[in-house]
Amino acid sequence: MAYLAELANTNPLVSTKVGGTSEEGRDIVQAIISSGLSANKPVHFFDCNIHAREWITAATCVWIIDQITTGYGSDPEITSLVDQYDWKFVPIANPDGYAYTWNTV
């Protein structure tokens, strides 16, 4: 996702990695949000868009990512949560199905 790549380039809390590839060779991208305050923090993990037509789940993951990254440092509750936990998101866990629903009637 271009959004995640851009966010990782502009926000020090965010990094991305490819967790694997789909059957059709598409990357399965994970966004990691961490303040880096501890190496052994518990992790909150979200995988979205598992089923091809669940478009709202990918949008929800991206919205949560946005809320966390824009709220860190200004919202005490979000700042505390990011300092206590690492956050991992896979906004599109099924990239082949997602692409299929956009390209096939």
Automatic annotation (TrEMBL):
Name the record gives this protein: Peptidase M14 domain-containing protein
Organism from which the protein derives: Daphnia magna
Domain of life of the source: Eukaryota
Cofactors named for this entry: Zn(2+)
Residues covered by the Peptidase M14 domain: 1-105
Pfam family, one: Peptidase_M14
Family named by the database record: Belongs to the peptidase M14 family.
PROSITE patterns tied to this protein: PEPTIDASE_M14
